[in-house]
């Protein structure tokens, strides 16, 4: 995770004790809530199955953080990088599984403990898109980030033409903050819109909501 990628735009420094508590919560996380209640940390042994999931253009095309070229070895390195980030308390990656153990999605987290902030990326299987599962899963994940990990702020980015994500974030109450240039792992760049939401804003919108 880049320490200064241009996000979050809002940066309110917290105490060292708060930052350390967030790092500890990240290191301790072994699962997260999902619609199927089946998510676990990705391991290098998942590289082949995860690569197969990611190889669908409907999955990988909108996601700038994925390694390129996308190979089994680059996916394994991607997983191993997240394991190192978890040890530092600044990143996590979970695989979402169906009842048969098939990978049907993944969640990629980056954290800035010094600002009590985090970002969620990831994707769901194309068979499960446009069925409300993405919205439900995202809402569950954002709530978990605030409640279980102790964040004050969640920031999200998306390509300018990613209408699906833009509609989702607007619907969930995120506030558009502007535009940044995002850098891919291979050094190439893209223009990205940025959204943010605070813990208080999230609670006000969702405390009486089922999403």
UniProtKB/TrEMBL annotation:
Listed EC numbers: 2.3.-.-
InterPro entries (UniProt xref): Acyl_CoA_acyltransferase (IPR016181), GNAT_dom (IPR000182), N-acetyltransferase (IPR051531)
Domain N-acetyltransferase: 37-200
One Pfam family per UniProt: Acetyltransf_3
PROSITE patterns: GNAT
Keywords in alphabetical order: Acyltransferase, Transferase
Catalytic class of the enzyme: transferase
A GO term for molecular function: acyltransferase activity
Gene3D superfamilies: 3.40.630.30
Annotated protein name in UniProt: GNAT family N-acetyltransferase
Organism: Kordiimonas lipolytica
